[in-house]
Every structure is written in structure tokens, then in C-alpha cells.
Request: fold
Amino acid sequence: MKLVRRSLLTLVGLIMFVLLSWAYTNFQVKAASTKGVYDSPEQGMREILSKYYTADQDVKILYAGPNSKNGREPQVWYVIAEVRATARVDGTALGTNGCEAPGSFFLQTKEGWVHVSEGAMLGFINFWMKIFNKAGTGKAIPTTDWGAHPPEQFCR
Reply:
């Protein structure tokens, strides 16, 4: 009797875990999608940056590629840009030499690329997106790569 009860509780726990994982994944993807779905991570980065810097901004994508070094998670990308502008939209000054180098995560869904925050547990979301058939195909090779030697310092 104890074994049956324990097995039943374990099964209920597993079902609850899967349901909560489904709910969390859907919530995060839907929230990201409402802010924008992009054809590429680079396009997404450029559009996001256009909202935070003055119109005279000059954006150069330094890196856009899989967040994992071995390309194992090709749906999770990290993009680093170099932005030069006179100021941010709120009027505050930029960092060194009127330049900043922001970076952001993008996740590929079947609809396109979405911007997700760093604290969203991307590995967890990506795993469940694959399980629930919501993940895009991904790309294992960077579209903008800085080669074997990333810059030691940005905004020079």
C-alpha cells in the first residue's frame, strides 16, 4: 500500500512539474513575443537599441551567435553590439568615448527570434521549448563572429 501511495505521489509530482514547466515556458515565450519577433537576432538587437539611444546612433554588431561554445543549443544566441551616440534617449551620457557595448540574449521560436532577459533561465526554457515543439531550428554557426580572439576591451 505504501509503495502504491508513494508511486502515485511521485507520478502526481512529475505531472505537476511538467505542467508548471509548460506554463513557465509559454509565459516567458509569449511575454517575449509581445515585445517583438524578429527575423534575426541582429535585427532584434538593432531595433531594441533604437529605442534607447538618440537618432544619431551608430550600431555595429560585434558578435551574434550561439551562446554555447559547441553550438549544442543553437536556438539560444547572444548578441553584442557597439553603440556610439551623443546620448541615451533619457538624456544621460554614454560611457567611454560616447560608446557602450550592450549584449542581449535571443531565443528562436517557430515564429522567429525573440529577446529574452538574462534571468529567464534560458537553458530551462530552451529544453522545454524543444519538448513542447515550440523551438525553431536554430543556427549553430555565428552570423557575426569575432574569430578566435574576442576583443579584450570594447569601445576603443
User: Anything to note?
Assistant: The beta strands are 58-66, 76-84, 99-100, 103-108, 113-116.
